[in-house]
Amino acid sequence: MHHVLMFVNLVFTVNNDNLYRQCSNGHLMCAPCFTHLLADARLRDETATCPNCRVDISKNSVTRNLAVEKAVSELPSECRHCTKVFPRHSLQYHEEKICEDRPYKFRQLVVDSGPRSPLAGLVRIVSSVYFLLLAALRRRFFVSELTATKRPRMTSCRYCVLGCSYRGAARAAAAHEAICAHPRRPAAELMSMLARRQKEHEHSLAHYRDLMDLLSYEKITFNDLQLRPFRTEELHKLYFETSRFTAFGFQWVVKAFVNKHQRDPTQSTQREITYQLVMKSKPFGPMCVRWVWTRGPGGSAPLLPEAAQHTFTDEEASPAKTLPLADPDDANRLLASKAVHFRLIMFSSPK
Question: How far apart are CA 292 and CA 346, in angstroms?
Fold first, then answer.
């Protein structure tokens, strides 16, 4: 059991999934490793096997090991707000509910605009403020009595915006800030760093402005798509394709590939899914189309809000683009699943 605890503690430095599977012979697999095995088997068009005994494994044949999961849930973990140590099974509740240093979420005061008595609205506002103050007092005076050992509150340097990575006890922050070298850096270095941060901020903000602009288009349509697996004849390489769907009076298809420019994707642990939007009808003239991917109903992988664009002049495919997955590890999860669902929102760009 000591070796098991050392192993799972090592795994949990990069993974927070509490589920552990085992094959029919009892060999353990953490959730990311199990998903990776299923994804490799899908790419090779083979049946997934246990890496220890080579018995066949699938989502229906493996079982959870509750004993290991219980042992893992008792491992000590540090709160990301106050740095106190708690068992893993109670860490989430502590961070979200009772930690004194957690970001506080104020309750929203909602006042109906319907025909109500002014006194009733005043009572609702006063009661909301009362419960808000009561929650703050309970957090300040009662929660501290229930917590175990008192450890110093952690904070960051006030010059973190200038690139300082210090994080330590709040009582020592003033001493650190007095000798922090970041505010004394040359102006040229600070300007380049601030310009880089400003560029990153503007880049992320541009995506949302672009999406708001797309919502003002006259022609908007969406389709819930399912990517089905197929294989090429020459290399027997896996790819995905949707059924034909209609948008703006034309027929379309989406094709997707795994590590398209790599001969054997199973030789790489880093995987990406690229796709092409294919127009199957002949347009009357150049047609500019923009589109956005979302998770959609039945989907399991969140996506980033990135808009793509291409002008179709004939029955052609758009250039290959990377599917904007929010988490790169979702590529293996999609490969391991039986069906891949997404929603494609398309906008007909004005001339």
Answer: 7
